[in-house]
Amino acid sequence: MHRAGIELRTFFRERDAVVFTFALPIVILALLGSIYDGVYEGSDVTTAQYLAPSMVAAGIASTVFVNIGAGIAADRDDGTLKRLRGVPMPPVAYFVGKVLMALLISVIETVLLLGIGVFAFDLTLPADVVSWLTFGWVFLLGVVACALLGVAASSMAGSARSAGAVMNLPYLVLAFISGIYFTPIGELPEPLVTAGSLFPLKWMAQGFRSAFLPDTILAQEVVRSWEHGRIALVLAAWCIGGLVLCLTTFRWRGRRDR
Predict the structure, then answer these.
(1) Which parts pass through the membrane (predicted)?
(2) Domain encompassing residue 50
(3) 3-state SS class at 41
(4) What residues form DSSP beta bridges with 39?
(5) 37 φ, ψ to 5°?
(6) pLDDT tens, 84-121?
């Protein structure tokens, strides 16, 4: 908890990073929600309303995966990680602090995105407990999976300067092939759908749509079912896989320190 407090204070001190971290998915939602127009056949769901829950998933991925990966790369590059290895703090505290920081920031990001969806695009919030529970477990599994993958991917960046580009490229590619920026996902080419289905972002977006949208929109999905069991299985598998990747690829020292 102490380390999480340090991570949060460090994050919020960088005001420009705070603004752009929260602004990116909000601006994209506002722009795409204004560009896309129309109501899906057989449902009263608009294109913007369909986009909003998907952008919550994209916001989590941006906030957690990209920020954690870039942040750890910067800590490695400036010697912070090397210094932390010499203090009594358990190594796991560093990673737990990062995950808790990402969790809180994701909550704030989600509230802002849902606020835009409700007030700008008439998105209706769930009125039943089951939908909120669905949203809750998808949110937690998604944050943990993205955080662990961000930790693992941080080793791909050779320096703090390259970290932003290294982390943003896979995020943007996955956002497109997961049907975030292209709605509905059922109209994506089959090879892209297959590729996107291998990664957690597609399943996070589908889980959030299941919580906020009526079943009448299922005609626009790849499968005419929300597939909650498969969503849980894939996200849990990525949590485990992300942990294995962290244990096998994480580096405390930068390449120049070797």
Answers:
(1) 17-36, 56-74, 95-120, 132-153, 165-183, 231-250
(2) 2-253
(3) coil
(4) 46
(5) -140, 150
(6) 877 888 888 888 888 899 999 999 999 999 999 999 99
**Residue 258 included in any domain:** no
Q: Contact, 212 vs 125, CB < 8 A?
A: yes
| Cβ–Cβ < 8 Å for 89, 3 | yes
Tokens for 127, please give them.
Answer: 């009125």
Model confidence pLDDT, tens digit, residues 193-228: 999 999 999 999 999 999 999 999 998 898 889 999
Classify residue 179: in a domain, yes or no.
yes
- 191 within domain boundaries: yes
Q: Of 144, 74, 39, give the one whose Cα is nearest residue 102.
A: 144
What is the Cα–Cα distance from 132 to 207, expressed in whole angstroms? 11
Residue 39 placed within a domain: yes
Give the H/E segment covering residue 67: helix 67-77
AA identity, residue 75: D
Residue 154: both structure tokens together: 């941080």
Whole-structure pTM value: 0.92
Distance from chain centroid for Cα 93: 22
How many structural domains are present in the chain? 1
